[in-house]
Protein 1
Amino acid sequence: MSRTRTALALALGTAAAAALSPASFTASAAPLAAAPSAAAGSTTVTPAGHAFKATLSGKATLKAGSVTVTCSVSVSTGTVPAAPGNQNAAGPVSSPISPPTYSSCTSSMPGVTPTVTTSGAWTVSMQNGSPITATMTVPVGGLVLKTTGLASCTVTAAPTAAANVGGTWANGAPSSLTFANASVPVKVTGGFGCPTSATSSTFNAVYLVTDSTDTAQQITVGP
C-alpha cells in the first residue's frame, strides 16, 4: 500500500533543490537508534494485542543542505503483538506499522513542490532500558520524495537495503517516540540543483503514541 502527499517534503520526507536529500526531519517539539544489542535485557510492551496510533507532535522538518522542508501532519498505526509475543526475555519486541503518511508540508525554497510517497512493510521495535530505545525499520525504497518546479529531484530512502532508524521511547500519557538526528541512507537523482552526491540524511521528529483499542489505557514499554 502506498500513500502520497503532495503538500510537502517526516517524519522522513525531504526537500528539494540545492541540497535536497532527506537530510533532517526535526520536530518542533523535539520517529530511532541502532537496533538493540543481542545481549539486551527483557522487554514487555503492553497492553498486549492493542492497536495504537502514532501522531506527529508539533512540526517535523527535513533539512538537506540549505533546503528545509517542514511537515505538520504525519501519522502511522500499528498493533502491539498478542501475548506472549508482546514479551521478549532477551531483546526487543517488534510490531508492524503502516507506512507513515506526510502532509501539510512546505519547502524553504520558493517555487518547489515536494511529494512524499511511502510503501512496503515498516516495523518498529522497542527495547526496554535506560533510556528505552526504539528502532524503526524502513523497507527498501519505502520512502520516495519527488520535487517539481525549480528543481526536479528524486530522493529514495533505503535505496538498496532496509534501513534502521534509531530513536527513544518515553512512557507517559500519552507515551512518546522521539527521533533525534537519526541517519537514513538515501539515493538522490535528478538534474540541475539536485544534490546527487548525497548518500545519507538525518531525521528528527516526535510522535505521540495512543492506545486506539482503549483510550483510557497507555502503550507502555517495561521489563
Protein 2
Amino acid sequence: MKIGELSRKTGVSLRSLRYYEQQKLLSPVRSDNGYREYSPFAPQQVETIKLYLNLGFTTEQISGFLHCVLQNKEAFCRDVLPVYESKIAELDEQIRLLERIKSNLEERVRSILTERDAAAQERAKGALPNGVDHDDG
C-alpha cells in the first residue's frame, strides 16, 4: 500500500508517516519509481506507534521496543518495563511540580482576598474614601 492509503486507514498525516520512517519506526520499501510501499501490517504498526505516543513516549523510546512488541506481547519484551517505569517516575515528578505551582497560586489567591477584605473593612470604617481600590483588573 502507498503512503496516502496508509494515511487514510490510520488517520495519521503524511508528514507524520514520513517522520515515523525517518525515526526508523516504519520501514517501507521503495518501488522503482521511488514511491513508498508499505506492508499489509503497516496500519497495525502505525496504530501501535500512536498508542505509545499517546502514553507520552518519545519516538526514540518507542524505537527501542517497537519491533519486539509487534512480534510478542509486551510482557515478553524486556526493554518495555524499564521505559514504563522511567515514564512513571517522570510523570510523578511533573505531578509534584504541578502540585507546588498550584499550592503557590492558591496561596497568592488567599493573600489577594485577605488584602481586599482588609481594604474593604478599612473603607467601611471610613479610613479609605469610597472608590479607592488598588485593583488593577
Protein 3
Amino acid sequence: MGEDAKDAEDAEDAPPRSAASRERAPRRWPALVAVLLALSLAWLLVARLDWLPGLGEVFGVDTKDRSGPVLLKSIQDMHRYEGAAGNFQVVVDLEKDARFLPDSIRGTRTLFVAGGSVGAYVELGGIGQDAVSVNEERTSATLRLPHARLAEPALNPERSYAVSKQRGLLDRLGDLFSDNPADERAVHMLAAERIGDAARESDLTLRAERNTTSMLLGLLRALGFEQVTVAYV
C-alpha cells in the first residue's frame, strides 16, 4: 500500500511539471523571431549604409587595383582607311538546359545587353602599281581599289551589362568551387556574332567606300589632279 500511495503522489505531481515545460516551449518562438528580425535589420543597415550619413565612410568598401603591367604582345602596321563605323546594341537571351533535369536543378539562363561597334575599311596596303593610272600631263588619275571589308565586332564594356542570370542548384554549387564562377564568355561571343551579322546586313561597306572615295578625291585634287576616278573591283 505504501508503494501504491507513493506512485499516486508521483502521478499527481507529474502533470504540473509537464504543463510548465509545455508553457516554456512556445515562449522560445518570440525570442527566435526577435533574433531573426534583429539580424535582418543589421544586414539591411550594413547593405545600405548610404541611408545613414557618416557610416558609409566607416564601413565602406575600398577598391584596390592590383593589376600587373600591360605587356605589348605585337605591333601591326595598318594600311587601311576606315571610312565608316556602326554602333549596335543587342539583347542576348542565352539558355542552357540539361536533359532529364528541371531548370531549378541544372541549367542557366542569362539575359545580357551588349553594345558594340563594327568598323568598315578599305585595304590600301596591297595596292600595286597597276592599280594606279596617271596620264602624262599628271592631270588625270584612276585608282582601282578592293571593296571595303568589315572589321571584327568590338564590345563596349561601358554599354554591356548582364540584366539577370538564373542558375540551377547544381550550377550554383559548381560556382563555389570554380576559379571563374561568373564566366560570361559564351554570352560575349554570341553577342559579337549577332552584332557582326547585323553589320553585314547594313550598308557599312558601301558608306566606307563612298567616304574613302571622297577622301581620295580631296587628296589628289589638292596635289593638282583635275580628274580623279576611283573604282572598286
